[in-house]
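job 3f2a | input accepted
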Amino acid sequence: MLAAVLVAVILAAVATAATLLVTRDAEAGDTQAGREDVMAQTEQFMLRMGSYGPDLLDDSGAMPDYREKVKEVITPKFAASFDKEAGAAEQLVAQAGVARVPDVFATGVASLDADSARTLVAGSFTDSYTIKGKTVPQEPIPFRIEVSLVKIDGEWLVDDFSPVTAGGAVPESGNPVPTPSQTPSTEGKQ
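job 3f2a | predicted structure (190 res):
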């Protein structure tokens, strides 16, 4: 009788240990999958937000496809402020023929829980201008940005972003993401 009870206790302990190991491994897999999801969404946001040019302009001087692609990866709350900023980009594209191409070097997860995350992304934007019918490329502009994401209806969406700089200083322009706002340099490019 004692042997049967001892065997039952050992089997129960083994079953409990196996359940705990399987649960821990599943949670670790969920955490890694969550990290990969937020990093992928962060990269998509930077690629979509940072990719524009004259080819996206419609007859009214707007970039509706650009706005739509960015809005697919951001929250409705963030979309309201994005619309205001997109107008500035549209104006630069229409008036100066500005084109921007992003290059994402790396993304990482700063924090992650069930419905919110903060990621870090580094890369550069390369702008070009059209001057006298000629495309003039500019030097790449590096960026390091912290992105806030929230999970809405099972999908990670960007809710905000801010610059990450040495010493916590904001770039001179005051813009978290550099935007071409000055007359392009044409020195030596005549």
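job 3f2a | Residues 2 and 8 are 10 Å apart (CA to CA).
job 3f2a | closed
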